[in-house]
Amino acid sequence: MNERGNKSESASVAVYETLRLPTLVGLVVANMIGAGVFTTSGFALADLGSANRVMLAWAVGGVIAICGALSYGGLARRFTESGGEYLFLSRALHPLAGFIAGWVSLLAGFTGAIAFAALAFETYISPLLAFTLPPKSLAIALIVTAALLHGARVRAGIGVQNVVVFLKFALLIIFIAAAVFAAKVIGVGSPAPSAPEFSLTAFAGSLVWISLSYSGFNAAVYVAGEARDAQTVVPRAMWIGTLIVTILYLILNSIFVYLAPYEAVVGREDVAAIAAQSIGGQSLALLVRAIIALSLLTSVFAMIMIGPRVYAKMAEDKVFPALFRFQGDVPRAAIAFQAVAGVLVVAFSTLKNLLSYLGFTLSLSAALTVFCLFLIPRAESQSVKIPAYPFAPVLFVGATVFLASLAVWRNPAELIATLLTVLSGIVLYFILKRHHKVDSDDKIERIV
C-alpha cells in the first residue's frame, strides 16, 4: 500500500470505535426523517380520495426503500471505503460516472438538501420563539453550528447528534401514545366520502412525493471507511434504519389519515399539525411542531457529517483539490466548504425551487448506482450477495426510473436542471483532470 493509502487508513482506524452499529443506524434514521412524513399525506389524500390508498402508497414506498437499502448493502460489502455513489460508480462503471455522481451529491444530495432542511427548520421553529429574528438567520445558524461541531472532532459531532436523535425518538413515541389515547377518548376521525375510482396515475404521483420522504436510506455508505467491520455493519445499519423508519412512517400516517377528521386534513400541507390539533388540542400540535423541527435539525447534522466524506474521497483519488482530504480524524476543509455552500443556497433559494430539483436528480443517481450490481463479474458476485437478489435491485431500479419519468412528465423543468448539473460535472471533471495531470482510468482500480 502506498503512503497516501497508509495515511488514509490511519485516519479511519482512529475513529473505528466511534462509528458502530447504533451510531450508523441513528445516522440513517436522522437522514431519512425530515418534514416530508409530516406534510405529504394531506396531498396524497386529496389525490387518492382514500385513507387506505394513502397507507398503501406509504407501504409501497417503504418496500422500495428497503430494496434500495439491501442493494446498497451489497455494494457496501464489495467497496468498504467511504464515498457513496462516487465510490461505487467510479469503481464499477467509470471514473467520469463517479465524478458526476459526486458532483450531483455536492449540489443536490447534500448542499441543496441541507439548505432545504435548514429553511424548513426555520419555518417550523420560528412560531415557537418569543422573539423575531431576521429571515433565514436561524437556517444559517443551524448550518454553521453543525459544521463547527462536526469539524471539531468526530466524537463531538456524533455525541450531540446521537443525543438529539434519541430525543426525537422519545418525542415521537410520546406523540404516538398521546394521539392514540386522545383518539380513544374523543373517538376516531369523521368518515371519508366514498373513494373515487382507483387511478394508477394518481397513485404513482402520490408515490413520487412519498418516495422523497424515504430518501436517505443510504447514509451509512458515506462513512463506511470509518466503521468497524464495514462489510457487515454498514449493510446492516441501512436495512435496520430503513425498516425502523418505514414502521414509524406507517404508524404516524395512520394517525394523520385515520384519527383526524377527513375534511380537516385533506389537501393540507400541515397535515401533522392539523391532525394533532384535532386529536389532542394545542399542546399536541406544539409537540408535533417541535418533533418536526428536531427531525430537520438532525437531518442537517447528518448531512453536514456525511457530505464532506464524499469530497474527501474524491480528493484522495485526485479528482478534487487535495485541500478536501482528511485533516486528522475529520475532513475540516470539506466540512467548511459544505457549510459555506449550504449557507449560500439558503441565502438565494426557496423551499419550492429546491424541492422540485432534488427529487429527480437524486433518484436517477441512486438508480444508476444500484444498477452497478449487475456489472460486477460473476466471479466476485459472492462478495455482494444480498437478500432477494436480483428482485431487490430490479424492483428498486425499475420503480425509481418509473417515478422519475412520471415526475419529468409532470414538470419537464426538472430534467433541464438535472441535465445542466450533469453537463457542468462533465466539464469540471475534464478541467480538474487536466489540472492534476492524472489519468483517472489508470490511477483508480476498477472492477470491470
TrEMBL record:
One of its GO terms (molecular function) is L-amino acid transmembrane transporter activity. GO terms for cellular component: membrane. It is a multi-pass membrane protein. The keyword Transmembrane applies. Keywords: Membrane, Transmembrane, Transmembrane helix. The keyword Membrane applies. The chain crosses the membrane at residues 21-43, 55-75, 96-121, 133-151, 163-183, 203-225, 237-260, 290-312, 333-351, 357-376, 388-409, 415-432. It is found in: Membrane. Its main location: membrane. This is Uncharacterized amino acid permease, GabP family.
